[in-house]
Specification:
By secondary structure, the chain is of the alpha/beta class. Helices cover about 15% and strands about 20% of the residues. It contains three helices and 17 strands. The protein has a six-stranded parallel beta sheet. It has a six-stranded parallel beta sheet with strand order 2-5-8-11-14-17, with no helix packed on it. About 20% of the residues are buried.
């Protein structure tokens, strides 16, 4: 049984870490109501589990073997994406026109369209996504209902509903849902950004 949980300890008391996969019954609701926000102002799942332990509830664990990545930041997420794409099996349930090139292990989901483009795997193209006059390079996962036009991208993750239009080269990037990255025709030429808290933008010199 689990005896104690410590959230982000400076000096870890063991060589084990929480991988973030939990199965709860309804008693977790009681635990959440009982705990108070942490110093970060948030209700911590570890505090809820610790409350269950202190109340004598049964908390079991399973030691997992194999790779594990803390996906709290962009670069580890991209590395996780790379590891997952390493083991995909190629499949084409969409459409690829005669002027397009598909190389390596590429998964094209139902309803996706590849038009006059080059896709070099490992790559996953989501359902109802359109890739037109573009290059999709290795280790890229594109979500559902995205539009990629006149652009080049690689080693990136795009969630559902993204639009990338007329972008010369995008690499090592992580885009949330319904994000638009487009080249503006407005003058004067300038960067026009709308970024959330703790965002990071890297620009070429």
């Amino acid at each position: 049984h689990v005896k104690r949980l410590v959230e982000k300890p400076k000096d870890p008391p063991s060589n084990l870490a929480l991988v973030g996969v939990y199965l709860f019954d309804k008693t977790i609701n009681e635990a959440v109501r009982a705990i108070k926000p942490s110093k970060r102002g948030e209700l911590e799942i570890t505090d809820a589990i610790q409350w269950l332990i202190e109340q004598g509830k049964t908390v079991r664990h399973e030691v997992l073997k194999g790779w594990w990545i803390d996906t709290g930041k962009k670069d580890p997420l991209l590395e996780c994406n790379r590891l997952v794409l390493e083991v995909i099996e190629p499949r084409n349930d969409g459409s690829v026109d005669g002027s397009s090139q598909i190389e390596g292990r590429v998964v094209i989901m139902q309803g996706a369209k590849i038009v006059n483009s080059r896709v070099r795997g490992p790559v996953v193209i989501g359902s109802d996504t359109v890739v037109e006059n573009s290059y999709i390079g290795p280790y890229t996962s594109v979500g559902n209902k995205c539009n990629i036009v006149h652009s080049e991208l690689e080693h990136s993750v795009l969630l559902d509903g993204c639009t990338v239009n007329d972008v010369h080269k995008m690499s090592d990037s992580l885009l949330g849902r319904n994000v638009e990255v487009v080249r503006s025709q407005r003058r004067p030429h300038a960067l026009r950004l709308m970024l959330g808290d703790d965002s990071k933008v890297e620009l070429d010199a």
